[in-house]
Amino acid sequence: MRQNDRFFNSDGSWYFNTRERVRIGPFSSRADAVEAAAELGERLSRVDSRRDAHRQIRHFMKFRVEPSLDLAFRRQIIDDVTLRR
To answer: pTM, whole model, 2 decimals?
Structure first.
């Protein structure tokens, strides 16, 4: 793995790095990691401060990365958390 690769595989799971230097994952495939990165990128494009960006990342990691939850359910939880802010 090159240090500047955004998406990488470690021990059979896929991860990606954010511009904030946060490692996000694990995901079962590279395609899942790419999809998650796009989703997080869209959410981060709507925040104004670094603090809000880190808050969004924490919520994203808590609800989007958990592999035992259905993808649609995880997205619904994230949307609910975002709307409550």
So the answer is: 0.68
